[in-house]
User: Which sequence fits this backbone?
């Protein structure tokens, strides 16, 4: 939610955003996994794993909504108030490449998790509703935990030394 | 806020996985389209997506709605025929800048003139990607990224919004694949417009135009919807090519119908009857020619 939009948001409106954030994150990771699988890139498995984590988080948000007892509002895609063009945990499509390695994939995922953490933290810091504040703070901490996990994985997958990729079909050498 | 939406965006995606390059802007367009259809709660069986040839023209295969992957540059004639024959359907023509503005350029002009009720969504990356990176109608005159045109084409780029406005399109907008939620909103407006709606979408090709990865920093919402054609022309004089939003929406005639939307055809006509009419018309034309 944008700063002016979330100050008065209800728990149901906040959870509608949280569920969609996690759902769209999972769908983006699945999309990336599919594209990498098409190009026989092994980082597909990593993206698939990230999609699974996002779905777990989405289910948790849905569980909270059920516990609150409020029906979530059904927002149209353009009615969500995100601080960015896409929902915050959607990994940036434009920074993918069919030859990307594990370090690059993890870096992409880390940026997405940090954006989600920042979003939840911003809601927690600015909301006027104590229940939204508690939920958003909790979700922010979970995203921070995901980010720490990714940082550990990154340490185990250092950048690949600069070298020409074994590209059998270079795109710019055909004309 | 709509509380009746029950179909999710992913329900409009097929099981066929896109073969687009990872990072292709067309993924964002596909996501925007499925979000739009979900947002409007359109039944998949009531929607048809028609395309030509090119990377972006593969889009119908990745949806669960009716689709037709046709001939190069010919998405609009097929879509026009479909929209006239089945005005109950939501008809969306899609394709790229080469397919739509070069190979199909003539159809584009006349689709704008005819104002049949359909939406034309052009994914513009200013390059022929499927054939490996040649200059397209919307490439800048000095773009030298292809070995075929090492000094650029020297030809001024096609200006889709100006051409559409000149040719009489009633709904003209520009979106960005990197902002699929805003694009979905524009697309919803285009679909709901009762006439020909043209939507240019800046959709980066990261393989042959890697510099387009910077679009996110260049694109900005800025068009304010205009209903006055003269004002829209004046606005385009200062267009930088990266401004998004709804530029022009022609007033709709009283009663909600489009200015020149084709009349609903007689769906009781038989094929034999149509053949008789066609024969009679040919005979009439032949008689006039002889006289």
Assistant:
């Amino acid at each position: 939610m944008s700063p002016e939009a979330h100050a008065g948001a209800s728990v149901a409106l906040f959870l509608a955003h949280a569920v969609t954030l996690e759902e769209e994150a999972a769908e983006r990771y699945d999309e990336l996994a599919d594209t990498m699988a098409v190009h026989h890139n092994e980082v597909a498995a990593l993206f698939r794993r990230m999609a699974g984590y996002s779905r777990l988080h989405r289910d948790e948000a849905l569980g909270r909504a059920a516990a609150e007892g409020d029906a979530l509002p059904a927002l149209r895609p353009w009615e969500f108030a995100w601080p960015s063009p896409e929902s915050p945990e959607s990994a940036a499509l434009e920074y993918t490449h069919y030859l990307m390695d594990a370090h690059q994939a993890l870096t992409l995922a880390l940026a997405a998790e940090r954006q989600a953490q920042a979003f939840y933290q911003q809601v927690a810091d600015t909301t006027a509703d104590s229940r939204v504040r508690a939920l958003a703070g909790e979700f922010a901490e979970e995203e921070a935990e995901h980010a720490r996990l990714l940082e550990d994985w990154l340490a185990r997958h250092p950048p690949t030394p600069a070298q020409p990729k074994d590209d059998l079909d270079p795109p710019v050498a055909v004309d | 806020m709509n509380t009746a939406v029950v179909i999710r965006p992913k329900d409009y995606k097929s099981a066929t996985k896109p073969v687009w390059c990872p990072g292709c802007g067309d993924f964002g367009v596909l996501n925007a389209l499925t979000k739009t259809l979900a947002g409007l709660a359109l039944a998949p069986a009531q929607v048809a997506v028609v395309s030509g040839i090119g990377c972006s023209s593969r889009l119908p295969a990745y949806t669960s709605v009716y689709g037709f992957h046709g001939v190069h540059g010919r998405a609009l004639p097929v879509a026009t025929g479909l929209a006239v024959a089945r005005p109950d359907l939501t008809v969306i023509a899609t394709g790229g800048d080469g397919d739509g503005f070069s190979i199909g350029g003539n159809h584009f002009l006349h689709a704008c003139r005819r104002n049949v009720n359909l939406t034309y969504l052009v994914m513009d990356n200013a390059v022929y990607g499927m054939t490996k990176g040649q200059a397209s109608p919307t490439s800048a005159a000095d773009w030298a990224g292809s070995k075929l045109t090492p000094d650029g084409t020297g030809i001024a780029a096609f200006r889709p919004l100006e051409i559409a406005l000149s040719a009489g399109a009633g709904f003209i907008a520009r979106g960005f694949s990197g902002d699929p939620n805003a694009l979905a909103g524009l697309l919803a407006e285009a679909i709901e417009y009762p006439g020909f709606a043209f939507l240019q979408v800046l959709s980066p090709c990261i393989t042959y135009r890697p510099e387009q990865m910077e679009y996110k920093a260049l694109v900005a919402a800025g068009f304010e919807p205009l209903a006055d054609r003269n004002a829209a022309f004046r606005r385009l004089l200062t267009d930088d090519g990266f401004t998004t939003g709804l530029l022009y929406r022609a007033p709709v005639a009283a009663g909600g119908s489009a200015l020149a939307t084709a009349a609903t055809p007689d769906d009781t006509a038989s094929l034999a009857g149509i053949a008789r009419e066609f024969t009679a018309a040919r005979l009439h034309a032949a008689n006039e020619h002889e006289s």
Observations:
- The mean pLDDT of chain B is 91.
- DSSP finds nine helices and eight strands in chain B.
